[in-house]
Automatic annotation (TrEMBL):
GO cellular component: cytosol
The family this protein is said to belong to: Belongs to the spermidine/spermine synthase family.
Pfam families according to UniProt: Spermine_synt_N (PF17284), Spermine_synth (PF01564)
PROSITE patterns documented for this protein: PABS_1, PABS_2
Catalytic residues as annotated in Swiss-Prot or TrEMBL: 203 (proton acceptor)
Gene3D superfamilies referenced in this protein's UniProt entry, alphabetically: Spermidine synthase, tetramerisation domain, Vaccinia Virus protein VP39
Entry protein name: PABS domain-containing protein
MF (Gene Ontology): spermidine synthase activity
Keyword terms of this UniProt record: Polyamine biosynthesis, Transferase
GO biological process, one term: spermidine biosynthetic process
Amino acid sequence: MGSSGVGQYPTKTQVQFENFDDENIVTSAANNGKKECNGTPKDTSPALPGWYADVSWPGEAHIYKMEKIIFQGKSEFQELLVFESSRHGKVAILDGYIQLTENDEFAYQEMLTHLALCSVPNPKKVLLVGGGDGGILREISRHSSVQHIDICEIDTMVIDVYKKFFPDIAIGYEDPRVHVHIRDGIAFINSVPKGTYDVIILDAFQPMGPIAEVLADKCFLDSVANALRPGGVLSAPADSLWHKNFVVADTIEKCKNIFKGSVNYAWTTVPTYASGVIGFMLCSTKGPPVNFKCPINPLNPEQNGVAKGPPKFYNSEIHSAAFCLPSFVEKAIDPKRY
């Protein structure tokens, strides 16, 4: 989770660390997470001072009790808010959209990473676009076969803030195999030689709208496929299957035409996100066949990389189960069968 890594080229970023103790500060996605003192945003109930309302989905809100605002800052690209909640630990809000909570970030980070890396034998070179919080780097570090990890993140503010306030997540940066590139993700992918990576992970969404646009961009997907070796894998977040306008059949068909290998939709539970569910798109390029539903590169329980312990969510059984879909989703993916 983190900024998209996609946008203009950055210049010097100013980072300011501030502490706020005002319990009556209320933030909302409706006003892009901006600080409001002695009052409340338009779409936030005045009866709930000191609460943050995440209104990512129309007609719904997820409410968090704010104990203390820890950081609030703005770079040339985006605004970032970090606060301590009463039940979910620290919470990060980027441009008014919730990115993660300490309570359940591992579910998303582990699944997005290991659904890909555990599906191919001996991955050696990995690219992460976005993911400035460092959690996916932490998970990649569990794979001893990986020799080189590139992360392309557009905003140094995101990296600095997570290192300061989320050290157990940003610990991924301590892996000596990690190489940080502060630049536009699309331009970076376009610049790498053909067949460079075994796995590419996209961690970019606000939430799920822009990634849906990315997955619909044929030119970008062509560039990703070109950057992968034969039988290489893309892992990206996708719409929740509970989304009112959930449409995945067209995306799957487009990805099949571009990547020429296996394409599957998976899902898991992450209570923080709207609906409590998030999807994943897994795609492989033409070459050695990839069966995403049957992991062939299981994690070594004695190899945790820079992480402080074993995975909290992912295991081989959860991996296979993530591709078991409800009937209405199966119908949405392959309406001709129904």
